[in-house]
Amino acid sequence: TLVHLTFLHETGSNNPLGIPSDCDKIPFHPYYSIKDILGFALILILLASLALF
Question: GO CC terms for this protein (predicted)?
Answer without folding.
Answer: mitochondrial inner membrane
